[in-house]
Amino acid sequence: MQRILSAELPTHVGTTVRIAGWTHRRRLLKSVAFLIVRDATGTAQVVVTDPAARAAVEALTEETVVEVVGTVTANPAAPAGVELTDPAVRLLGPPAVPPGFDLFRPTLTASLPTQLDHAPVALRHPRRSAALRVSAAAVAGFRAALDARGFVEVHTPKIVGSSTESGANVFALDYFGRPAYLAQSPQFYKQLLVGVLERVYEVGPVFRAEPHDTARHLAQYTSLDAELGFVTDHRDVMAVLRDTLAGLLDTVADRAGPALALLDVGVPEVPAEIPAVHFTEALTIAGAPADEPDLAPAHERALGEWARSEHGSDFLFVTGYPMTKRPFYTHPDPARPGYSNGFDLLFRGVELVTGGQRLHRHADYLAALAARGEPVEPYADYVAAFRHGMTPHGGFAIGLERLVARLVGAANVREVTAFPRDLHRLTP
User: Where does the Aminoacyl-transfer RNA synthetases class-II family profile domain start and stop, copy by copy (predicted)?
Assistant: First the structure.
């Protein structure tokens, strides 16, 4: 007999089926016992009246893996309107050691550090696993949106030979006796691959050896990167990002509907044209000093509130960040060279995406490095590629964990990360 998932039970009323999953909860009443079995799609209620079957259920511990064969019976009071009756219950493994916290309650009462210490079990809670399903749907949506626009998925090295992007903020390691580093981003490689494939994207881990201990930072996170050639300026990149986000969120709504419903959240609408302000205007809106070189989290929150109240938008582009705060490969604004053709996208008051137009002429790279007093040697292979003809190009990177956290209303990115790595956590 083929196994049926709990979500499929309403289509099998009146038939005998086999389900399997974890013992989510037992409710032992005087005349009847209820066994709640959890699987990947939800829970199923099993009604136990036979004394022998009841004795087996009474002996179960939470999280013990079981198989149940029974008749699907309609009952409006049961989950999804059906339940299993006349069951035969069989253990598929030894009795489980119950977890140190209740997984059957609507929310986990254990502290976040406790949940993370016991992640293999805590992640089984429906709300925690729902966030992972939203994350998976977001990645699928990112891929689908860019595939539809002629982008090619690529895979770039995560072990690199030079701490090029920000030497003090990389993880060093021994590579067969030579110094090497974990890649901070695929930035250089995706630019070089624009010279091969024109439009590329990557989904992969990035590593930041930054001693941040905040609710929005991780030492390893998943970056959704894209780069495209033949752009006029950063606004072409912003347009592609807007369409990518819209497609991504459509996929989340389509593929993760039950998870969103369980979390009681909806998918925000992406405006046909996301409102945008220049960095200098953003400082004014946020009430920051005019000489502030960057936006602090408090400024971003204020800008998020402004975008919601003035434009009804959860999204806001901030363009034209000072060149001093952008990487050397960023293209300056031709009209205001002190400012960049770069941008951030804020989502509900938090920086979600960084992007912009890149330099594409070899001479401009040499000049940019010289202006910052940086040697060419660490970037030699990267910079040399621009001698052979490169299209005007640009791109962006989305932080997956931040995106999912803002989508589901999580206060901490660790709540939506299966096994986070941060300043203090290296296990499990």
Answer: 142-428
